[in-house]
Design brief:
Blueprint: E1 15-17, H1 18-26, E2 39-42, E3 48-50, H2 51-61, E4 66-68, H3 69-74, H4 97-104
């Protein structure tokens, strides 16, 4: 969805317009019916957030017109954003698929 939101001729750009990306997410045939009902994040305090709530928070807190994929992913962390000096590290999961599924079913 992120790459689909890039303007033609700018496929290699690192940032896209936040409004276009969020609109594409909100009106996507997969995400639209579940955006207000399925939790996509749980905070450090145990507060759950739907995709709709997460996008609203990100739109409110991140005021730049363009957004990068990394900045978008930060919104899904337990704190909702990274602290100074922290970074996202992408790699193999630290737990098995079965452990992750069991955790989500609790």
């Amino acid at each position: 969805m992120f790459n689909k939101s890039k303007p033609k001729g700018e496929e290699k750009t690192e940032e896209i317009f936040k409004e276009v990306f969020f609109d594409n997410l909100c009106f996507d045939e997969f995400f639209e019916p579940i955006s207000e009902t399925v939790d996509v994040r749980e905070s450090v305090d145990g507060i759950r957030e739907t995709l709709d709530q997460l996008l609203y928070r990100l739109d409110r807190d991140y005021t730049e017109p363009k957004i990068s994929w990394e900045t978008f992913l930060e919104a899904f962390t337990k704190r909702g954003k990274l602290r100074p000096g922290e970074q996202l590290i992408f790699g193999p999961p630290l737990r098995s698929k079965e452990e992750m599924i069991a955790e989500t079913q609790r």
